[in-house]
């Protein structure tokens, strides 16, 4: 009996019945664990050939445990008990889940929003900063590193004693850090960012923060055999089929915790699934919801499958556990095992969807647009279509705004662009996700109001997650972008742009690329953070226009 449970009903169960035999026929599981790069077709081969070492990490990562423990003990001995992690996407999402689940503190700084960066630059006497970047060229992470290095120096603290770098061997960051005398832990270069949970990227910050990372590897190792078996009970094959082989494709995957005991798992799975599958006009959009009472968790919509992350069952679950009146999957198992489970399932989903699950072609387009805008100087942003109090209103991707001149009218115009059967609304808030956290509470109400799945992402964090799907996936999204003037800007040491310039360029660049894909983007810019946010929160909290056709969920 495996520690993992994958139980499905309705179309998700039908998908398992149809697609798992085909995966068995292809010996997908055993070939995956043999790191067979041909599993996703010729075009993907050059990338998949250097992206498959994650199947063995439960064993190959073990030498890191001693090194991390020694580093932690040394730092604790110096009174350093605050761990800050600077990293984006796959370089920070796993440690966030690992530490939250273990109940140990980790400050995750995955933002270029000046107020949020500034809020992390405190308590430096007791702080160690892990700077994690596989490529070593992610501008958010490089900017954060520069800010912390300057802040340590200003306090008379040797940065090389308090900044630990995690990066690929030979990356620009690897070379610069080593020549600068910093401690560097190299990660396995043959693992992509969103599959790197059990590499140094997941283990170093989590171990320094005090999480039991050996148990994590043990839980993953305990299920490696069942996940590599060409067997119709293989939970990885079952989950991959349930996710990606429904017919017609249910491309909204609602992720909701239902007593799993794991904290924040959907936020990690979101990047893995969205960035792996959202390309060539197809893909699966994770819709992270906070409760089984949220609207999408109760709708039997034809484009939705609901995944409930449940507690460990000591009985072998059977398919009648989940509700049979819609497409649902119940998944259970310890965190370490689930990290490997979902990686196998996503790799299988990539084969079933006919795409390469290891590249992220469209993320680059937004980065390039942001760089161009930075070079041009961000002050040239175009005039707003209208200004309503402390909110500037701009509309991209078509003439859909009409005569709207207020925030409520502009929202109605945007929501009017939603395809009633397959559309989704993406809210993208380039704000301080800690200080402004309560804005996310508008999400369920927007789902009730639009009768469509709603995703809520913090910018620029989501750019490394659902951002790929928005640009490379099906053209069914409408986009609401909220940006703000910071309470106070912050310089990026050694750069000609500030954090405020950079985050504005990231938002503008992403909106520009979405508009180039003919997607409607409503940009609400808060000229005064507090007043503007109150206006936007009120408008987004307005009740459903008409009777809630789906009934209150
Ligand atoms: O670890 P890096 O190279 O800084 O990349 C951070 C993230 O950015 C991406 O490369 C693009 O979003 C992700 O795949 C990755 O997890």
From TrEMBL:
Pfam family for this entry, one: PGI
Family according to the record: Belongs to the GPI family.
Main EC class the enzyme belongs to: isomerase
The keyword Transport appears for this protein: no
Keywords on record: Gluconeogenesis, Glycolysis, Isomerase
Membrane spanning stretches: none
Signal peptide: none
Protein name: Glucose-6-phosphate isomerase
GO function term, MF aspect, one: isomerase activity
Domain SIS span(s) in chain numbering: 71-214
Pathway involvement of the protein, from the record: Carbohydrate degradation; glycolysis; D-glyceraldehyde 3-phosphate and glycerone phosphate from D-glucose: step 2/4
EC number: 5.3.1.9
InterPro entries in alphabetical order: G6P_Isomerase (IPR001672), SIS_dom (IPR001347), SIS_dom_sf (IPR046348)
Gene3D superfamilies noted in UniProt: Glucose-6-phosphate isomerase like protein, domain 1
Reactions accelerated catalytically: alpha-D-glucose 6-phosphate = beta-D-fructose 6-phosphate
């Amino acid at each position: 009996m495996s520690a993992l449970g994958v139980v499905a009903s309705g179309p998700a169960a039908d998908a398992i019945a149809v697609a798992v035999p085909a995966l068995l026929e292809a010996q997908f599981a055993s070939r995956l664990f043999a790191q067979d790069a041909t599993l996703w077709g010729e075009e993907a081969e050059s990338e998949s050939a250097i992206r498959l070492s994650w199947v063995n990490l439960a064993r190959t990562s073990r030498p890191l445990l001693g090194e991390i423990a020694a580093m932690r003990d040394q730092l604790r001995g110096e009174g350093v008990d605050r761990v800050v992690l600077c990293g984006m996407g796959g370089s920070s999402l796993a440690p966030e889940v690992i530490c939250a689940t273990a109940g140990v503190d980790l400050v995750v700084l995955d933002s270029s929003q000046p107020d949020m960066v500034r809020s992390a630059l405190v308590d430096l006497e007791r702080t160690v900063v892990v700077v994690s970047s596989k490529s070593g060229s992610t501008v958010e992470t490089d900017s954060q590193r520069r800010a912390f290095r300057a802040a340590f120096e200003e306090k008379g603290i040797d940065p090389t004693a308090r900044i630990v770098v995690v990066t690929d061997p030979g990356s620009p960051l690897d070379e610069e850090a080593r020549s600068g005398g910093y401690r560097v832990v190299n990660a396995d270069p043959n693992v992509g960012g969103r599959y790197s949970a059990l590499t140094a990227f997941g283990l170093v910050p989590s171990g320094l923060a005090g999480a039991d990372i050996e148990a994590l590897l043990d839980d993953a190792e305990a299920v490696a055999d069942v996940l590599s078996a060409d067997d119709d009970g293989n939970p990885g094959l079952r989950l991959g089929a349930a996710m990606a082989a429904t017919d017609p494709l249910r491309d909204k995957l609602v992720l909701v915790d239902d007593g799993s005991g794991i904290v924040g798992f959907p936020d990690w799975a979101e990047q893995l699934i969205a960035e792996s599958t959202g390309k060539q006009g197809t893909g699966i959009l994770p819709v992270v919801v906070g409760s089984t009472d949220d609207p999408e968790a109760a709708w039997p919509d034809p484009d939705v499958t609901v995944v409930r992350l449940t507690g460990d069952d000591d009985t072998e679950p059977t398919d009648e556990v989940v509700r049979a009146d819609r497409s649902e999957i119940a998944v259970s198992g310890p965190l370490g095992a689930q990290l490997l489970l979902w990686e196998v399932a996503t790799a299988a989903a990539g084969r079933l969807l006919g795409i390469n699950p290891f590249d992220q072609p469209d993320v680059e387009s937004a980065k390039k647009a942001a760089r161009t805008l930075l070079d041009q100087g961000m002050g040239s942003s175009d005039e707003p279509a209208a200004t309503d109090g402390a909110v500037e209103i701009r509309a991209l991707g078509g003439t859909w705004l009409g005569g709207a001149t207020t925030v409520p009218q502009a929202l109605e115009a945007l929501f009017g662009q939603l395809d009633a059967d397959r559309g989704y609304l993406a809210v993208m808030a380039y704000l301080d996700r800690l200080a402004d956290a309560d804005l996310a509470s508008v999400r369920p109400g927007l789902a009730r109001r639009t009768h469509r799945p709603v995703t809520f992402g913090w910018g620029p964090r989501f750019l490394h997650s659902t951002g790929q799907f928005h640009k490379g996936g099906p053209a069914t999204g409408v986009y609401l972008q909220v940006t703000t003037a910071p309470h106070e800007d912050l310089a990026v040491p050694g750069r000609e742009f500030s954090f405020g310039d950079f985050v504005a360029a990231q938002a503008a660049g992403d909106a520009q690329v979405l508009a180039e894909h003919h997607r409607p983007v409503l940009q609400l810019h808060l000229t005064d953070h507090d007043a503007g946010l109150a206006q936007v929160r009120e408008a987004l909290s307005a009740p459903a226009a008409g009777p809630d056709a789906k009934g209150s969920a």
